Amino acid sequence: MFHEIINKEEDLSKEEIVYLLKFSDKNELHFLYQRADEIRRQFCGDGIHLRGILDFSNYCEQNCLYCSLREENISLERYRMTPEQIIEVVRAASAQGIRTIILQSGKDTYYDTDVIAYILYQIKQSTDLAVTLSLGPRGFDEYKAWKMAGADRYLLKHETANSELFTYFTDGLIRGNERIQHLRFLKRLGFQTGTGSIIGLPNQTIEDIADDLVLSRELDVDMAVFSPFIPSAFTPLQNMQICNFDEAIKTIAVARIVLKNCHLPAVTGLDILNKAGREIALKSGANVLMPNFTPEPFLTKKRLQNFSNKRYPDYTSPQHEISVKLERLGRFLSIDRGDSLKKSHLVK
Ligand code: SF4
């Protein structure tokens, strides 16, 4: 049954996804990773895309229980970069050969529609970068304005498909299905879209993770980010159990089998669970790395937000990201923008 499911051409049912996520036979498990790697090669090729992240603000108006950026975290030293600082960093990243930049912040409406549009316009005028916005749920009119200003992609993680868990972890401030509506709207506007979830949240079941994969498939997203839960200091979940590494990797492998031609990052957090975490993910279905281009002194503040309790090592520098030995994996650094692999976006 295991081999039948991993080799199935048709879409997997939720029950089959659950079966794979629960599969734990140590003598057979390597076939799952091997199959995910084959599907990655067939649908995405051997190139690894770098998507540079710029965390330009760590302010947030929300209070998600798992997140160090939550508004009530008064121990966090907050920062905001000016539009000029943001544009300068993006241009420098472009000069270093990065082809995609992700402009990321908490939900921070200090950067209003016009400010973000101005930043986008300036970046698009002076670079050929693909620009992804990761600014949380914002107004539909804002999405329209930013698309017109040149934004290519929008990353809005659904965090967990279990609506009860979502309401609990986000302190009831946002509704899960609202995010889904936003993702659908973004897609209609022509954005390449990304979603994703946190793996290993307290009280999350394997069925919930299967629902995350099914939802990502239904939304037909271009990228899906599955990040391990790592308890952040000074949050209500700081003493909870960290995500199990094997579960995180298995999720990425099953995600590749389910989502086929969707970009799947090997996120930095995997290296916190296992020193070779991202390399293992790249061999198990992942095809994207996300180096952090946030400059000093902001980078130090960002590091402190996650690692101020010193429990975890720091793996956030671009140098560390790019030092992953791609040749050793039989892979190469892609020089294209890593656009959508879906037909709707290939016909341009
Ligand atoms: S998860 Fe996002 S919306 Fe929630 S507190 Fe963190 S940055 Fe804000």
CATH topology: TIM Barrel
How many distinct beta strands? Answer: 8
Share of residues in strands: 5-15%
Radius of gyration: 19 Å
For the sheet with most strands, the description reads:
8 strands, parallel
Could you explain how this protein is built, in words?
The protein has helices spanning 2-6, 14-22, 29-44, 83-95, 113-126, 140-148, 163-169, 176-188, 206-219, 245-259, 269-273, 277-282, 298-307, 318-322, 343-346; strands at 47-57, 100-105, 130-134, 153-155, 192-199, 223-228, 288-289, 332-333. With 348 residues, the chain is of the alpha/beta class. The protein contains 15 helices and eight strands. The longest helix is centred in the N-terminal third of the chain and has 16 residues, at 29-44. Strands 1, 2, 3, 4, 5, 6, 7 and 8 form an eight-stranded parallel β-sheet that branches. The protein is globular. It has one domain (30-339, 341-345): TIM Barrel. The protein binds iron/sulfur cluster. Residues 60, 62, 64, 67, 69-70, 106-107, 136 line the site of iron/sulfur cluster.
